[in-house]
Amino acid sequence: MGKVYLGDDFLLYIDTANNWSSPTWVLVECIEDLAIDPQPITAQINKRGKKTPGYKRGRFDQMLSFKLLNSEDDTEFDAIENAIWNQTNDGTEILHLALVRGDITVSGNKIWENDFIVSGAPLDPSLDEGASYDVECKPAADSDEELTVGTTS
């Protein structure tokens, strides 16, 4: 019998201090269906004389997505919900998030870290399953930081 894959190997953390030099990581537990698309955009290149097009890699356009479950007692839920509804573009809408393969406190785990803005979050006020947001986050243009891929220490 093979290994069972449950999908909870990767965890999402939010830096509640929003401070890259000294982050205060808190596990975001009120989520489902966590995904990151690590592929760069591809561009189709047509060459004269070739019947089929070729492709080139473009810029890395990561998108982090997850289902945020309504959880009014969690500070991490409040921080993400505030970023969803904040339309001021004054920097408070930026979320410092980390996707980690495992516990962030364990040394050697793979980590993807960046500042994100919420680029979409339709609200689903479902009566039978409870309310949730389908959140999509993209890298924040107003951040001085860039995607960091490494290991936890």
Short description:
The protein has one helix spanning 75-85; strands at 10-15, 25-27, 31-37, 40-45, 54-60, 63-69, 95-101, 110-120, 123-124, 132-139, 148-151. The protein has 153 residues and is mainly β.
Account of the protein in words:
It contains one helix and eleven strands, in the order ββββββαβββββ. The protein is mainly β. Strands 1, 2, 3, 6, 7, 8, 9, 10 and 11 form a nine-stranded antiparallel β-sheet that branches. The radius of gyration is 18 Å and the shape is globular.
Question: Mind summarizing the main beta sheet?
Answer: 9 strands, antiparallel
Query: Structural class per helix/strand content?
Result: mainly beta
- On the 0 to 100 scale, the average pLDDT is 85
SS summary, helix count: 1
Order of helices and strands: EEEEEEHEEEEE
Our estimate of the beta-strand percent is: 35-45%
Which term fits the overall shape?
globular
Low-confidence sequence ranges: none
* Total DSSP E strands: 11
In helices, the fraction of residues equals under 10%
For the CA atoms, what is the radius of gyration?
Answer: 18 Å
End-to-end CA span:
34 Å
Helix/strand layout:
Blueprint: E1 10-15, E2 25-27, E3 31-37, E4 40-45, E5 54-60, E6 63-69, H1 75-85, E7 95-101, E8 110-120, E9 123-124, E10 132-139, E11 148-151
